[in-house]
Design brief:
The complex is a heterodimer of chains A (205) and B (639).
Chain A: H1 3-67, H2 74-94, E1 95-96, E2 99-100, H3 102-123, H4 127-131, H5 133-168, H6 172-179
Chain B: H1 3-45, H2 62-87, H3 90-97, E1 101-102, H4 110-126, E2 133-136, E3 143-146, E4 154-158, H5 159-164, H6 167-182, H7 185-215, H8 221-271, H9 274-285, H10 319-334, H11 368-381, H12 384-390, H13 393-403, H14 409-423, H15 425-439, H16 443-457, H17 462-477, H18 484-498, H19 517-529, H20 536-544, H21 562-572, H22 577-591, H23 599-611, H24 620-623
Parallel strand pairs in B: 2-4
Antiparallel strand pairs in B: 1-2, 3-4
The chains are: A mainly alpha (205), B mainly alpha (639).
Chain lengths: 205, 639
């Protein structure tokens, strides 16, 4: 019969089997780490998204408040309204089918930042407006929302960096290539002065 | 009903399961050895029996048996390990593997806000850290709890559950999931899933062998022999593995169904509203199909509120039966219900009611009155701006920093500098903005406020948390001493946040109380000296009744300090669950010796319980006494 002859062969076969299984364990762990890194990154992005949305919601009431005082600043207000519209549509297009494309959103947000800054600079010229309770409230809301955006951006960049580390370093880069994990793009801010100091992008620790 | 009883029950059933599992592994090995034994017997019958094996029956070949048993056990454990690795990330990883998105309080669509409120109420009422909540974009109605301990637990809800359930129904579902967390069901589930996965590996390998054998070229006879052998072994593996896994599944499903009934019953008990949970179930039953649309869900079935996939071996009891039991308990509850306006139980959540020897941890079970009181109480006592800040990852840090804020201008100045240097001017500004609101928070409510911050803090990246923790440490040290509040805060952070950042584990250890008597002595002595009312010895003796073998006399007051307490707690954290339970009871008893629970004592108790991973409910009813205007410090808490 064959069995007596094959038993030693099978024992030899058990060794590669065990090795294969150990390999499966390692692969699973690597894959999971990648998948978790990607989900964390998306979650971190949705934190930014939440704050940006809140900010976009604040702007119409800001414009309404300011309009009454600033008859002569129509172009500044128009710029803010336009920039907001662009930022809103960029925010909607940023996360399509699980991929996060932050570049357009970062650009739109930066131009909204610029428009808002020049509006706020104009507000300085209207002491009544500046002193009004509504305006002060709005201003505080805007500032704290901006802080939160900067902070969420920092968390997002940290998550992107972690993800990219995993995608590009051995051995998980092999798994990443196998399952189509790609490098993600951090949120680059051109303007460093306004953000929280550390929020410059996660290029370096 | 006692939280620890359930944990004990869960542990006992785990032990039974281990025995059953070992039996099934033995069965699998026997089944694998069966063909070899048959072969040996047939050889014997043909007179070609193996040589020189005196006294052993013909079918037994110890060498072959050792190979089979060793091989099977190795493969099963490796398979279980694969599964274990998948669960390694704790509850967060489970939710994330299902594609969950973490809910942020600020995202606040009204439906999401309502869910988070419900979860918060339940957490505060049960003393459990507020778990992060994930939402799964799926129209079915479902929910799950995942994670191995209350500190690393997460909850997940489908979009359908949010949109289609009323608030009461949702509360019932949340309570059900909380029961899973509190009773340690998730740990049990993970172990079971790992065991079944281990046995399934045999089936997998058997199939691989089949494939290999089927594709092998059949030219030379030696190879042909090997192919036949492979086919045979493959077949044996598939059959043995399938039977093993089948019984494993049945076991798993049976246990899971029992835990579901228990969770339903507990939810009914927490909310006193079994009809709402029954209504939620009925809503699910009325749907054409309630399967979650995710491939990952089929392996995680036992985590869910109702079966997420239509499995043949149901991990959940039939919905009709669950509804029937719930409504049975509804009738039972409604009969002896207290008439509206009748005097309520007056014992506060902690403290010792003499006639009713209820224990501290027994009251860790949230009750309906407390749960419903949480949100109104918070809204009445805390400024809305502060509540909002607690829920924002950025602002929540400021709230925590402020809880350690100094009492003199000089210290505060130094603290402000620390914050500005470490966390930037924006954080310093936020701290200043929130300071007036935070300084009006009554001290007993501070821990509740901190609890509210915990889910937001989990949104920080690792680096952000490290920076924050470093700054908080410096802020606390700014006045050169550690206050009790700071100590409690540190314990709460260690238990509730750092566990999630992987800094430390919080599973119960194995040490028995007898092996930690010295530390229990130090702890109880410190607690007894805390009120400084000259009754330390009496308080100590009352507490010592809980622990056999303690010295009769407490330590001298000079030898008690927060440092000594830290040291003792570090070692006591290695206690098993029963030991932790005893220690917390002893501490609570010693504190209530003078018939009152002071704010300082409450803080101390909470810090100790946090460090030992014991859940204590917030004393919501007594906190309400501290609504603005009520007298605060030093006064004994009314009971």
């Amino acid at each position: 019969m064959t069995l007596a002859a094959t038993l030693p062969d099978l024992m030899v076969a058990a060794v590669p089997l065990t090795v294969a299984l150990a390999l499966v364990i390692v692969l699973t762990a690597l894959y999971n780490a990648l998948a978790v890194a990607r989900v964390r990154m998306r979650n971190a992005f949705s934190q930014i998204d939440v704050q940006l949305r809140r900010r976009h919601d604040l702007i119409p009431s800001l414009v309404e408040t300011v309009r009454g005082y600033m008859e002569h600043e129509r172009s500044t207000l128009q710029a803010v309204i336009r920039a907001r519209a662009e930022a809103v549509s960029a925010a909607e297009g940023a996360a399509v089918d699980g991929r996060i494309a932050v570049r357009a959103l970062a650009a739109a947000t930066a131009s909204l930042d610029g428009a808002l800054r020049s509006l706020m600079a104009r507000v300085e010229a209207y002491p009544d407006l500046k002193a009004s309770a509504v305006m002060q409230n709005l201003q505080e809301e805007l500032v704290s929302t901006e802080n939160r955006v900067a902070f969420a951006r920092q968390a997002f960049n940290d998550a992107v960096m972690r993800m990219n580390e995993r995608v590009s370093t051995f051995p998980s880069n092999l798994v990443a290539r196998l399952f189509g994990f790609e490098q993600a793009e951090p949120w680059q801010t051109e303007d460093h002065t306004r953000a929280v100091p550390e929020a410059r992008t996660g290029a370096a620790r | 009903l006692n939280f620890f009883d359930h944990q004990d029950a869960a542990r006992r059933s785990t032990r039974r399961l281990v025995v059953l599992f070992i039996l099934s592994v033995v069965g699998v090995i026997a089944m694998l050895y069966l063909p070899i034994a048959l072969y040996l017997v047939s050889e014997e019958a043909e007179g070609r029996g193996p040589r020189g094996r005196d006294g052993l029956p013909a079918w037994l070949d110890p060498g072959a048996l050792a190979v089979v048993a060793g091989g099977a056990i190795t493969l099963i454990s490796l398979g279980a390990l694969v599964r274990r690795v998948q669960f390694a990330g704790g509850g967060r990883a489970v939710a994330e593997s299902l594609g969950g998105r973490w809910l942020s309080p600020s995202s606040a669509s009204p439906a999401e806000r309502r869910l988070l409120d419900t979860v918060e109420e339940m957490s505060i009422a049960s003393g459990m850290p507020v778990p992060p909540v994930a939402i799964i974009e799926d129209e079915s109605i479902n929910a799950f709890a995942a994670g191995t301990t209350p500190a690393n637990a997460v909850l997940g809800f489908t979009r359908g559950a949010l949109n289609r359930l009323t608030r009461d129904e949702l509360q019932g579902v949340v309570a059900h999931e909380f029961s899973h967390i509190a009773h340690g069901d998730m740990r049990l589930n993970i172990r079971l899933a790992c065991a079944v996965a281990g046995v399934m590996v045999l089936v997998l390998i058997g199939r691989v062998l089949f494939h290999v054998a089927a594709r092998a070229p059949r030219t030379r006879s030696r190879k042909g022999d090997a192919t036949a052998g492979l086919l045979l072994v493959g077949l044996a593996l598939v059959v043995a593995g399938s039977i093993g896994a089948f019984f494993g599944r049945i076991l798993q499903a049976a246990v899971s169904r029992q835990r579901e009934y228990l969770a339903d019953a507990s939810a009914a008990q927490y909310t006193r509203n079994p009809r709402a949970l029954a209504a939620a179930l009925r809503r699910i039953a009325g749907l054409p199909s309630n399967t979650l649309d995710s491939a990952a869900a089929s392996g995680l079935n036992h985590f869910f509120f109702t079966s997420a996939a239509s499995a043949w071996l149901a991990t959940h009891p039939p919905i009709g039966e669950r509804i029937r039991r719930l409504e049975g308990s509804a009738n039972a509850i409604e009969a002896p219900m207290r008439p509206e306006g009748a005097p309520e139980r007056t014992e506060s959540a902690i403290g010792f009611a003499p006639q009713h020897r209820a224990t501290t941890t027994e009251r860790a079970v949230p009750d309906a009155r407390t749960i419903d009181a949480v949100t109104p109480m918070l809204k009445r006592t805390l400024p809305p701006r502060l509540i909002e800040a607690c829920r924002e990852p950025f602002d929540a840090q400021a709230v925590l920093l402020l809880s350690a804020w100094g009492s003199t201008d000089e210290v505060r100045e130094r603290q402000r500098d620390v914050v500005r240097a470490n966390l930037g001017p924006a954080m310093a500004a936020t701290v200043s903005r929130l300071r007036p609101a935070m300084s009006r928070v009554p001290e007993p409510l501070l821990l509740t406020v901190l609890d509210l911050c915990m889910p937001a803090l989990q949104q920080l990246s690792q680096r952000q948390y490290r920076d924050f923790r470093a700054a908080l440490g410096e802020v606390m040290r700014a006045d050169g001493k550690v206050s009790l509040m700071e100590w409690t805060l540190r314990s709460a952070l260690a238990r509730r946040v750092e566990v999630r950042f992987g800094a430390l584990g919080d599973a119960p250890g194995r040490a028995t109380i007898a092996a930690r008597l010295g530390d229990a002595h130090a702890l109880l002595s410190t607690v007894a000296h805390a009120p400084a009312n000259g009754r330390a010895r009496e308080a100590y003796r009352r507490g010592a009744e809980w622990i056999r073998g303690l010295p009769v006399e407490p330590l001298a007051a000079e030898r008690c300090s927060l440092d000594a307490l830290d040291h003792a707690l570090e070692r006591l954290a290695e206690l098993n669950e029963a030991g932790r339970h005893c220690v917390v009871e002893a501490v609570a008893t010693a504190m209530s010796e003078d018939g009152a629970m002071h704010t300082r004592e409450d803080l101390l108790l909470r810090g100790i319980a946090d460090r030992l991973g014991v859940l204590l409910p917030s004393a919501v009813d007594s906190l309400e006494q501290h609504a603005p205007g009520a007298a605060l410090d030093g006064k004994p808490r009314p009971r």
